[in-house]
Amino acid sequence: MLHARVRTLVSSAVIITACSGSSATEPLVIPSVLTGKWGGPSVGLDATASPATAHFDFCAEGTIPTPILLTPDGRFDVAGTYVRNIGPSIQSKSARYVGLWRATSLTMTVFLSDPIGPNNSDVVGPFDLELGKDGPPIRPCPVVY
């Protein structure tokens, strides 16, 4: 009889303990503006409330003069500029910075108004960046090939 009571009490304690913790994670709160230092192997992004700057490992840089506003699902699409510091002339073009925020990581692609990206492409990326990481080291540019 005592053994049955102990077993019942232990079973009840296990059930209460298992049910008391929430198995669901807290909902992710998406900020309205992207901020912070983000980095990956090929690009670094320093985002403040306004402006944001990007530097790429292939002698290019970008500026986003307005805040990077995030949608409720963490996406962004903002206008900026992209400068390719390579070759005999330095070209600056308008660009769109498009991406997805995921708390500590970010995916970003740059869509250029003209094909001045690597290999004469009008799309640069996609790039995976992590919050708090440095981008590639900034090297001297322009580089003449």
Describe this structure in words.
By secondary structure, the chain is mainly beta. The chain has a domain at 36-131. Helix content is 13%, strand content 40%. The protein starts with a helix and ends in a 14-residue tail after the last strand.
Distance from first to last alpha carbon: 89 Å
Task: Give, in spatial order, the strands making up the sheet with the most strands.
Answer: 1-2-3-4-5-6-7-8
| Coarse shape | globular
β-strand percent reads 35-45%
H/E element sequence: HEEEEEEEE
The SS-based structural class is mainly beta
Mean pLDDT: 81
Please summarize what this structure is:
With 145 residues, this protein is mainly beta.
Secondary structure layout plus pairing:
Blueprint: H1 2-20, E1 36-39, E2 43-47, E3 52-56, E4 60-64, E5 75-84, E6 91-102, E7 105-112, E8 123-131
Antiparallel strand pairs: 1-2, 1-8, 2-3, 3-4, 4-5, 5-6, 6-7, 7-8
Keywords, separated by commas or semicolons:
145 residues, mainly beta, eight-stranded antiparallel beta barrel, 1 helix, 13% helix, 40% strand, globular
